[in-house]
UniProtKB/TrEMBL annotation:
This is Putative proline-specific permease put4. PANTHER family: AMINO ACID PERMEASE, AMINO ACID TRANSPORTER (EUROFUNG)-RELATED. Residues 95-559 form the Amino acid permease/ SLC12A domain. It is found in: Membrane. The keyword Membrane applies. One of its GO terms (cellular component) is membrane. Keywords: Membrane, Transmembrane, Transmembrane helix, Transport. The chain crosses the membrane at residues 98-117, 123-143, 206-227, 239-256, 325-343, 382-401, 422-444, 456-477, 503-525, 531-551. It comes from Lachnellula suecica.
Length: 601
């Protein structure tokens, strides 16, 4: 902390006489913003310089613990880039949006949600997804946007936790997220086989696993911008399908069906089903189960954070994309579950039979079942085809996310150095190979006897993601405290609307903690306890705790104070990238179709 008045260690760079040069540094980062952003940034720059003389004695350096952490981060990044290669910023605004949406809407919203509808009722499903979208996903997206707009770096989920909270939290959080993402990869490619078996249940499923997994790995080997284009197309299909199903629901409920039946909310005669108990308690428990399902079915903020290091012009793209992603996902989760409860009876015999027999693909889709109830037939093959692309797209997104997580862990010294290696096109080749190796667990589904075992492991991923969300909230709360203490909250490039932070993060952190704590509540009901169910419900908690305690004692880490948190390392390099990107776009004529895309996305 004892910097001389004439110098200030900022990240890995040392600046003398923080007056005029400080203004130039701030102005250079302004080019990537629109007029309003430029104005506010200039005002913040002038304000910073006016306070420079009085603040310079106590200006926060990047020194924490026993060493200079800011220099450590910069040296790690430089060493990794020069020796092993590095990822590149090849994703655009629309890529980021569609990759995130693609990872968030899988077979669960088209097929798996039928189980929640049948067991909890339409109102419970609608309220559960609404609560989760408003009080969990929205605060997560806003927290992620604030942190990643300030510092869009590799492995931001755990690197931020390491910088702002405790290195042990970063280590544990990184591996918990990597594990959860890998389980989703296995789950989604297994889901692809289930969807394909709607057409062909004779062929050995191993061939279809090889085909879908192999295509994803090949796609992840090419440059990230081409990967983004494929995700854009496949995710567009599922968006079109979701919008079409919602529209079909509201048309048919008003009589626009072959039977001319204005059925409205006819199927809401038991809107909240009882679970384990009768009466109000039973209905509440049925409602609470939806949170556990939503924790697995809903997502997105984690992918925003993991893609931020490969997005072009991140200071502009991330806030814009994040807000639009949430609005789209909110519509799909909230309006979609409302529409589902309207069109499909929760006690429909076909739906219940499909759950009992484990029907494949669209045969078990409550959307297809609901349309058939009202005389709309012939959509099963079309829905099944798009559900297949949906499952594949979701798995593909988490192949990307898990490989980048392992790469970032290696870059930050938390995984073997071999996983730092990147091809010339920016693909972390050995990290991708490791993901491919673990993904081969999908082949366990070739034998029916292994399905239960694999399903047990995959169920663990929902708890892993809830723990990841808790880490994001804790990290954001500490990040905000560091920003307030070191530079002032007005210095942020993006802030949550209505000044709701950090209050919503505190609330959502408590909400996530309660979900994790009680996600296995049914196990403790009289006569319901089994060891396998207990492990499936709480293994993620023990796994995270073990990793945290191990790194805490092995490295003797300590909790980082707000005044010592490293919020500057790597920032100047990103500011320079932003400036170079904007300068490279000067004089370029944007085609009309691109302008249309920009308005749409």
């Amino acid at each position: 902390m004892g910097s001389a008045p004439g110098s200030w260690l900022w990240g890995a760079a040392k600046f003398d006489a923080l007056g005029y040069l400080g203004l130039q540094i701030r102005i250079r980062s302004v080019w990537s913003f629109n007029h309003e952003h430029r104005k506010s940034s200039l005002e913040r720059a002038r304000h910073s310089i006016n306070l420079a003389e009085s603040d310079i004695e106590s200006a926060p350096t990047t020194v924490t613990g026993n060493g200079q952490k800011g220099i450590q981060y910069a040296e790690i990044s430089a060493e990794a880039g020069e020796k092993y290669g590095k990822t590149v910023r090849g994703l655009t605004n629309r890529h980021m949006q569609l990759i995130t949406i693609g990872s968030s809407i899988g077979t669960g919203m088209f097929v798996g949600i039928g189980s929640a509808l049948a067991r909890s009722g339409p109102l419970s499903v609608f309220l559960g997804f609404t609560f989760f979208s408003v009080f969990m996903l929205w605060p997560l997206f806003m927290a992620a946007a604030e942190m990643c707009t300030w510092l869009p770096v590799r492995g931001s989920i755990f690197q931020f936790a390491e910088r702002y909270v405790d290195p042990a939290l970063g280590f544990a959080g990184g591996y918990v997220y990597w594990y959860g993402a890998l389980m989703l990869v296995i789950s989604d490619f297994t889901g692809c086989v289930s969807v394909i078996s709607f057409w062909d249940d004779k062929t050995n499923p191993g061939w279809y696993i090889l085909l879908t997994l192999g295509l994803s790995l090949l796609l992840n080997l090419i440059a990230v911008k081409y990967y983004g284009e494929v995700e854009f197309v496949t995710s567009s299909f599922k968006i079109i399908l979701m919008i079409s199903l919602i529209a079909a629901t509201f048309v048919t409920m008003l009589g626009g069906n072959p039977q001319h039946d204005r059925y409205g909310f006819r199927y809401w005669h038991h809107p909240m089903k009882e679970y384990l108990e009768t009466g109000s308690l039973g209905r509440f428990l049925g409602f609470w189960r939806i949170f556990i399902y939503a924790a697995f079915a809903c997502g997105g903020p984690d992918v925003v954070m993991m893609t931020s290091a490969e997005v072009q012009n991140p200071r502009v793209v991330i806030p814009r994309a994040t807000q639009k992603i949430y609005l789209r996902l909110g519509m799909f989760y909230i309006v979609g579950t409302l529409a589902l409860g309207i069109i499909c009876p929760d006690d429909d015999p076909t739906l219940l039979e499909s759950l009992d027999t484990g029907a494949s693909g669209s045969a078990a889709s409550p959307w297809v079942i609901g349309l058939r109830v009202h005389g709309v037939n012939g959509l099963a093959n079309l829905v099944n085809a798009i559900v297949l692309t949906s499952a594949w797209s979701c798995g593909n997104a988490y192949v990307y996310s898990s490989s980048r997580t392992l790469y970032a862990l290696a870059v930050n010294g938390k995984a073997p150095a071999i996983f730092k290696k990147c091809l010339s096109n920016g693909v972390p080749i050995y990290a991708l190979a490791a993901v491919a190796a673990v993904s081969c667990l999908s082949f366990l589904n070739v034998k029916t006897s292994t399905n239960t075992v694999l399903g047990w492991f995959i169920n663990l991923s929902s708890v892993s993601f809830m723990i990841t969300y808790m880490i994001i909230f804790v990290t954001y709360i500490r990040f905000r405290a560091a920003v307030v203490q070191q530079i002032g909250i007005d210095a942020l490039y993006f802030r949550t609307p209505f000044n709701l932070q950090p209050y919503v993060s505190y609330f959502s952190l408590g909400f996530a903690f309660i979900i994790v704590l009680f996600n296995g509540f049914y196990i403790f009901w009289p006569g319901a306890f089994t060891a396998s169910d207990f492990i499936a419900a709480y293994f993620g908690v023990f796994f995270f705790t073990g990793l945290f305690v191990f790194w805490k004692f092995y490295k003797k880490t300590r909790f980082i104070k707000a005044g010592e948190a490293d919020i500057f390392s790597g920032k100047q390099a990103i500011d320079d990238e932003e400036n170079e990107w904007v300068q490279s776009r000067v004089g370029i004529v944007v085609p009309g179709y691109q302008k249309a895309f920009d308005k749409l996305f």
